[in-house]
Specification:
The structure holds two protein chains of two kinds. Chain A is α/β, with parallel strands linked by helices. Chain A has 23 helices and 20 strands. Chain A has a six-stranded mixed sheet with strand order 6-7-8-3-9-10, with helices on both faces. Chain A has a six-stranded mixed sheet with strand order 16-17-18-13-19-20, sandwiched between helices. In chain A, strand 9 and strand 10 form a beta hairpin. In chain B, 38% of the residues are buried. The chains are: A alpha/beta, B mainly alpha. Chains A and B meet through helix 15, strand 16, helix 16, helix 19 and helix 20 of A and helix 10 and helix 11 of B.
């Protein structure tokens, strides 16, 4: 059979810097190929440059779609191919859909352009397409604007739009990354289903090996612009040849935490909450809003207990209130109910003028290592800042020694002697994983008992995630730290947590030890989470 | 238990060896790459520094006189005419041909400034009627009162630039402070301040200037106060928006969690990261201030009479339309000044644009 797409020696360069170094692959009609790699490996750029959709990129090589070289086509010819024979689904459906038009209109536009339907026919056809993606009440949804749909529905609408032209090849660029875990499986199943019905080929770009295993026929692994390995999914997963593939496949975080058995009842819990309630004021519509503020309850009736040296995992999807819970625990948001950190209430500590000593006991590491470090401060200033507040008696030299020690602790410096020039660097010179280590060092330097970890690894690549989690586990073993770990990733929970609570819509729906929750989930929501993970 | 998993080499540093440049240093390097902006800055600085020493460049008194074996410093001290063999006890007029001859005769000598006129000098011994076209005596001609145009331009430029610097400094400081307070604390403080700004901003600035210039004796400091009172609002909005954005970033939250006070957070964390619009607008604010002073002077509401001023020269140019040298040369000075500032502003905007990559 003739191949559908034949890519040979595809290279992409920006301003003379090559980011993709001559990759070759072939796709048969109706084949599902997954392009895997970490961020920066060039997988998205490779796929998008097939349609010359990358600005300022110098693309060389050849990409033959049924014998015609896409890279040699004129812009006009290429426009005929885009969205017709080759369609694309992007990662973030909110920005990929035009917010000013209804979803139905946007699908109908494709139908009119590519299939020459009349507006009326196009409207009917767009409703049918939406129905085929499993959106409930498709006729009503077709009249909805993108912001009126949920994330999963938006991605379904994007898929309907991509299918409108009955493409032969569908480029799916991280189609599930922006979605909650429980939705990812559904969207992937839908893609498989539609792929079978339409007999189109799908090029799935992803960093998530679970998706590859579930979805693809063949897999191609990219590392720093090179295609290092390709083959049938079963072969590559069973017997990876290239070391990078092996590293990716073993990147699932390992559990190396102490299991102290049952919590010591006598010890003061480092964090205890009873009937915790956190709410935000929201503006009310209309005239009422002039006199009164509405209230959005983000966390409702939460009971938490965290014993010293243990990790409490909080899992839930976006918007479930888990980050609000973290900010409340840090005393950064007002709350109702009791919330005690190492036996003291925030409100009382503030009244007694002891807020500072309480702050020393609880520290935080945030999700995004790019926004959590001030870009205009040096590493020494960032990490040493806590000492200025909590141990102002230190001299500059002592402070510097402590900063070097903290950086060594988090594995950023292997030789404390040559820390000098490191300390004067700025955050932008560090990679994501290194920045996250910096954030951990900043939190640790004041000697806290409890660390709040708000999605500490979800912005990192899988191999880096594994390293950072291993670091956190080692620090816990060595120092008896307690962690309040907030995440949406069941892998992370399985590796780190002793106890788990599951949050949904601001309420804790399930709690128990990590074994109980992951092996015998009771609440239907937990069950769907665990299913998607296993 | 082994640490094998953690030991997977932490990623190498991107720029190994050298200590990295701070964000402001990188911005400066980007600024230097814009050659037009960079050279505008150089030229502008040279012009400003030169105008600060205007007394050495354009002065109706000699810098140094050697007369009858004695040394005199007329630039800094007054000498009666009798000292140099004149008849009167009054201050020496060094443009007087008789005095000139006295102090340059024989072994006597005098060191004059390159342009031997001050901004207010009336040359009673001029050879041409006022206003005079450019001659060898007056390189750019004179105005309708017989004052040298070049001298007036030099001193007028200095007044304009110093005034603009002061106004920009005061306005920027006020704008940053008020914007920071609104943006950082938000809520009711923000709401109240915004309403105040709306009321304050709708006051008729020009009327107030006219009224005040009638009530008080006009002076540059009065003008500075009045223009400052109304000049901070635009910047305050930008700073407020930056603060609103930056105060909820994770590094500010982390600083709060560390226990820093509000003042420390503003000073160390939010402010340095919110200054981009402030710096970007500086040259444009300068040129706006120069223009404001010029137009007020043109209308006669600006600096007190007798102060060298570009606006007053423009209005003379309008009244003496056939004396083209007045309006043309003033116009040229204004255009060059404003162009230099605009080029600098463009370069600054590029330098501080976070989307521009270093190369």
């Amino acid at each position: 059979m003739n191949p559908l797409l034949e890519v040979q020696g595809l290279s992409v360069a920006f301003n003379g810097v090559r980011v993709v170094h001559g990759i070759d692959f072939v796709m048969a009609p109706g084949e599902k190929l997954a392009l895997v790699g970490e961020s920066g490996s060039g997988k998205t750029v490779s796929a998008l440059s097939l349609l010359r959709l990358v600005h300022n990129a110098e693309v060389t090589g050849s990409a033959r779609l049924q014998g015609r070289d896409l890279l040699q086509m004129s812009e006009r010819q290429l426009r005929g191919v885009r969205g017709d024979e080759v369609a694309i689904i992007f990662q973030e459906p909110m920005t990929a859909l035009n917010p000013l038009y209804t979803v139905g209109d946007q699908i109908a536009e494709v139908l009119q352009l590519k299939k020459g339907l009349t507006p009326n026919q196009a409207q009917t056809a767009s409703v049918e397409l939406l129905a085929s993606t499993g959106i409930p009440e498709p006729a009503r949804r077709a009249r909805a604007y993108p912001h009126q749909l949920s994330g999963g529905q938006r991605q379904r609408a994007m898929i309907a739009m991509a299918l409108a032209s009955s493409p032969k090849l569908l480029l799916a660029d991280e189609p599930t990354t922006a979605l909650d875990v429980s939705l990812r499986g559904q969207i992937l199943d839908l893609l498989s289903e539609l792929q079978r019905q339409h007999g189109m080929a799908v090029l799935l770009i992803t960093h998530d090996l679970n998706l590859v295993r579930r979805f693809a026929d063949r897999v191609a692994v990219m590392e720093r612009g090179h295609l290092v390995e390709q083959g049938a999914v079963s072969d590559v997963f069973a017997a990876p040849r290239h070391p990078y593939t092996r590293m990716l496949l073993t990147s699932k975080p390992e559990r190396q935490v102490l299991d102290p058995g049952a919590a010591d009842e006598a010890a003061t819990p480092v964090l205890q909450a009873r009937q915790l309630r956190v709410s935000y004021p929201v503006p009310l519509p209309g005239l009422r809003g002039w006199f009164k503020k509405g209230e959005f309850v983000a966390v409702q009736g939460a009971d938490l207990d965290l014993a010293p040296g243990r990790t409490l995992g909080v899992i839930g999807e976006s918007g479930s209130g888990k980050s609000t819970l973290a900010l409340a625990a840090l005393g950064l948001l007002p709350h109702l109910g009791t919330l005690q950190v190492t036996g003291s209430e925030w409100v009382e500590a503030r009244r007694a003028g002891q807020e500072r000593s309480l702050r020393q006991r609880i520290q935080v590491v945030f999700q995004d290592p790019y926004s959590s470090l001030s870009p205009r401060m040096t590493i020494e200033q960032i990490v040493g800042e806590g000492l200025l507040v909590h141990e102002p008696q230190l001299t500059a030299a002592q402070r510097r020694d402590r900063v070097v020690a903290a950086l060594t602790d988090v594995g950023l410096l292997d030789d404390p002697g040559r820390g000098g020039d490191w300390l004067q660097r700025y955050p932008h010179e560090f990679s994501g994983g290194q920045r996250q280590r910096l954030a951990i060092a900043r939190a640790l330097i004041v000697g806290p008992q409890l660390l709040v970890l708000d999605e500490p690894t979800s912005a990192l690549d899988v191999t880096v995630q594994k390293q950072v989690l291993a670091l956190l586990q080692r620090l816990q073993r060595e120092r008896g730290l307690s962690y309040l770990l907030i995440t949406h990733d069941v892998d992370v929970i399985a590796a780190m947590a002793h106890e788990v609570v599951v949050m949904k819509d601001g309420v804790l729906v399930e709690r128990g030890s990590v074994g109980q929750v992951l092996q015998a989930p009771k609440h239907p929501y937990t069950r769907s989470l665990v299913q998607a993970w296993a | 238990m082994s640490n094998s998993t953690e030991a997977v080499a932490p990623e190498p540093l991107r720029a190994s060896g050298q200590v990295g440049a701070s964000p402001s240093k990188r911005a400066w390097q980007r600024f230097r790459r814009n050659r037009l902006g960079y050279w505008s800055l150089v030229v502008f600085c040279v012009l400003v520094v030169a105008s600060l020493f205007a007394e050495l460049l354009s002065n109706d008194r000699p810098l140094l006189v050697r007369y009858e074996g004695q040394t005199y410093f007329p630039m800094v001290r007054d000498y009666p005419e009798t000292v140099f063999g004149g008849d009167f006890e009054s201050n020496t007029d060094f443009l007087d041909p008789f005095i000139r001859e006295q102090i340059t005769r024989g072994a006597n000598w005098a060191l004059f400034a390159p342009n031997p006129y001050g901004p207010k000098t009336l040359n009673y011994f001029a050879r041409e009627p006022n206003p005079s076209a450019p001659t060898r005596d007056n390189w750019l001609g004179t105005d309708d009162r017989g004052r040298d145009l070049l001298a007036q331009l030099i001193y007028g430029f200095r007044v304009s630039v110093l005034f603009a610097l002061a106004l920009t400094f005061v306005g920027t400081a006020l704008g940053v402070i008020t914007g920071a307070i609104q943006g950082f604390f938000g809520g009711k403080i923000d709401l109240a301040f915004q309403r105040f700004i709306e009321i304050w901003g709708s006051m008729p600035e020009l009327y107030l200037l006219i009224i005040f210039s009638a009530v008080f004796a006009p002076s540059i400091s009065l003008l500075l106060v009045l223009l400052s009172l109304f000049g901070w609002m635009g910047l305050s909005d930008y700073v407020r928006a930056e603060f609103l954005r930056n105060r909820q970033l994770d590094y500010v939250r982390a600083a709060r969690a560390l226990g820093l006070s509000s003042g420390q957070i503003i000073w160390r964390h939010v402010l340095p990261n919110s200054l981009t619009p402030v710096v970007t607008f500086l040259p444009f604010r300068m040129s706006a201030a120069i223009l404001a002073l010029t137009s007020l002077d043109f209308l006669g509401l600006g600096v007190p009479p007798g102060t060298p001023s570009l606006g007053e020269l423009l209005s003379q140019g309008k009244n003496n339309i056939d004396a083209w040298w007045i309006s043309m040369s003033t116009f040229a000075v204004l255009v060059i000044t404003l162009l230099l500032l605009t080029f600098m502003g463009d370069a600054l905007r590029d330098a501080l644009d976070p989307r521009k990559q270093d190369r």
